[in-house]
Amino acid sequence: MGHVRHFDLIIIGTGSGNAILDERFADWDVAVVEKGVGSHASYGGTCLNVGCIPTKMFVHTADVANAPVSGERLGVELRLDEVRWPEIRDRVFGRIDTIAESGKRFRRDENPNVTLYEGLARFTAPRELSVETAGGPTTISADRVVLAAGGRPVIPEIPGIEDVEYHTSDSVMRLERLPEHMIILGTGFIGAEFAHIFSALGVRVTMIGRSGRVLRNEDTDVSERFTELAARQWDLRLNRRETGVERAGSGVRLHLDGPEGAESVEGQTLLVATGRRPNSDLLDTIAAGIETAENGKIKVDSTQRTSAEGVWALGDISSDHELKHVANHEERVVQHNLLHPEEPVESDHRFVPHAVFSAPQIASVGLTEQQAVERGVRYVTATQDYGGIAYGWAMEDTTGFAKLLADPSTGKLLGAHIIGPQAPTVIQPLIQAMEFGIDARSMARGQYWIHPAMPELVENALLGLPLD
Ligand SMILES: Cc1cc2nc3c(=O)[nH]c(=O)nc-3n(C[C@H](O)[C@H](O)[C@H](O)COP(=O)(O)OP(=O)(O)OC[C@H]3O[C@@H](n4cnc5c(N)ncnc54)[C@H](O)[C@@H]3O)c2cc1C
Question: What's the chain's average pLDDT?
Answer without folding.
Answer: 97
